Amino acid sequence: SSPVHPFELFGIGGLLSGEELEIQRTVRTMGERELRPHVADWFEEGAIPARELAKRLGEIGVLGMHLEGYGCAGTNAVSYGLACLELEAVDSGLRSLVSVQGSLAMYAIWKYGSEEQKRQWLPGMAAGDTIGCFGLTEPDAGSDPGSMRTTAKRQGTDWVLNGTKMWITNGSVADVAVVWARTDKGVRGFLVPTGTPGFSAPDIKKKLSLRASVTSELVLDAVRLPADAMLPEARGLSGPLGCLNEARFGIIFGAIGAARDCLETALSYAAEREVFARSLSSYQLTQQKLADMTLELGKGMLLALHLGRLKDSGELSPERVSLGKLNNVREALDIARQCRTILGANGITLEYPVLRHANNLESVLTYEGTSEVHTLVIGRTLTGEAAFR
Ligand code: TGC
Ligand code: FAD
């Protein structure tokens, strides 16, 4: 009998509306035609044409697509998730570009910015003409952003920022950095045009993961900003953490995209590859791997959709986001590694996407809250006891 796709086996398509399917198709088509042919080279070279990519992603409407107004598409959350899924099916680095632009930098302005800040920045960012980055992590403050050292101090009506941010996606290509800093009234967010004197963003080199993505340090050396550079509505750590919920949501779907791409690759490879005079897919050991991976992929997709529907009905708590991020990234990474075994030696090259996805997913497991942090969030929810410190 003819093979059935894992998502078809689970009946996933029937759970999506016509509009959601259409958005998914548009992003998939663009990704397959315009991104996939180049992505292995970008990964190998450790360089992407970020500006052109941002412009093209803006044209298809995926930058800040789940936000309302200011040039954003205003789609539902599930559609945004599906766009992330299709981009990450090509490469986690491309989904990262979109996550950071839309869910972190744009969302921070959209949620916490003044009307003037929204009008100044959001339309250009939605179009991909202006690139944003989001600086929370520091060399000595990752999982515990509350221990950040970057400061913003008043000098007259101005603010002066000093400190270093680390591991910042889109950092050196950004036009505007959303920087979180400690003030005498707690953590606040600042919009830093990257041409401001004292700001620099050296790239982080020699990455073995997320190579098709720009990752930089942000150095703030007495960066002087006017009073209106502060995001007026963000107070305390709940400001940046509120943005992370948005980006983590996209990752819940995105990780499924990477895993789907691996499984599709392994299914077709196993069907073609002959070992001991029979197709690799005809062996029970292979079928067990394929069946187990299909179960995890399908369950992860159902979880993503469930959380997406909860987000659309306003019932997605941060703890629920932790369930999805922890499960789907962990399972996607397992699937990518298992698929690599099916491809044998061919699996270690960039001719196939599986080890590229696996390497990328190592970063995805760590950023936006490590798997340990999300485990502890779930543990705190279940027991009422915080075990972070
Ligand atoms: P805690 O005392 O729990 O909370 C401090 C304040 O924040 C509030 N809060 C949240 N608000 C919104 N959403 C959430 N998810 C929130 N979690 C906590 C909380 O209610 C409280 O508010 P208030 O008003 O009472 O002050 O904070 P804690 O210091 O104990 O830390 C908790 C912990 C460890 C869970 C948190 O700090 C955490 O999530 N750490 C992980 C840090 C992280 O995820 N960093 C990501 C950086 S950005 C990134 O990685 C981008 S990669 C993107 C890409 O390339 O795709
Ligand atoms: P640490 O916090 O030092 O953690 C090290 C280990 O200790 C981890 O396994 C962790 O889970 C564990 N650990 C920590 N606390 C506990 C605990 N209480 N109990 C048990 N174990 C614990 N950040 C941004 O702000 N903006 C970005 O755009 C951005 N992009 C990124 C892109 C890439 C490619 C990468 C790799 C990272 C990016 N990050 C970004 C940073 C990312 O969010 C941090 O790496 C992450 O939050 C973890 O921080 P850390 O690396 O300092 O690890």
TrEMBL record:
<dbReference type="Pfam" id="PF00441">
    <property type="entry name" value="Acyl-CoA_dh_1"/>
</dbReference>
<feature type="domain" description="Acyl-CoA dehydrogenase/oxidase N-terminal">
    <location>
        <begin position="19"/>
        <end position="129"/>
    </location>
</feature>
<keyword id="KW-0560">Oxidoreductase</keyword>
<comment type="pathway">
    <text>Amino-acid metabolism; tryptophan metabolism.</text>
</comment>
<feature type="domain" description="Acyl-CoA oxidase/dehydrogenase middle">
    <location>
        <begin position="133"/>
        <end position="223"/>
    </location>
</feature>
<feature type="domain" description="Acyl-CoA dehydrogenase/oxidase C-terminal">
    <location>
        <begin position="235"/>
        <end position="382"/>
    </location>
</feature>
<dbReference type="InterPro" id="IPR006091">
    <property type="entry name" value="Acyl-CoA_Oxase/DH_mid-dom"/>
</dbReference>
<dbReference type="InterPro" id="IPR006089">
    <property type="entry name" value="Acyl-CoA_DH_CS"/>
</dbReference>
<dbReference type="InterPro" id="IPR013786">
    <property type="entry name" value="AcylCoA_DH/ox_N"/>
</dbReference>
<comment type="similarity">
    <text>Belongs to the acyl-CoA dehydrogenase family.</text>
</comment>
<dbReference type="InterPro" id="IPR009075">
    <property type="entry name" value="AcylCo_DH/oxidase_C"/>
</dbReference>
<protein>
    <recommendedName>
        <fullName>glutaryl-CoA dehydrogenase (ETF)</fullName>
        <ecNumber>1.3.8.6</ecNumber>
    </recommendedName>
</protein>
<dbReference type="InterPro" id="IPR052033">
    <property type="entry name" value="Glutaryl-CoA_DH_mitochondrial"/>
</dbReference>
<comment type="pathway">
    <text>Amino-acid metabolism; lysine degradation.</text>
</comment>
<dbReference type="Pfam" id="PF02771">
    <property type="entry name" value="Acyl-CoA_dh_N"/>
</dbReference>
<keyword id="KW-0285">Flavoprotein</keyword>
<dbReference type="Pfam" id="PF02770">
    <property type="entry name" value="Acyl-CoA_dh_M"/>
</dbReference>
<keyword id="KW-0809">Transit peptide</keyword>
<dbReference type="InterPro" id="IPR036250">
    <property type="entry name" value="AcylCo_DH-like_C"/>
</dbReference>
<keyword id="KW-0274">FAD</keyword>
<dbReference type="InterPro" id="IPR009100">
    <property type="entry name" value="AcylCoA_DH/oxidase_NM_dom_sf"/>
</dbReference>
<dbReference type="InterPro" id="IPR046373">
    <property type="entry name" value="Acyl-CoA_Oxase/DH_mid-dom_sf"/>
</dbReference>
<dbReference type="InterPro" id="IPR037069">
    <property type="entry name" value="AcylCoA_DH/ox_N_sf"/>
</dbReference>
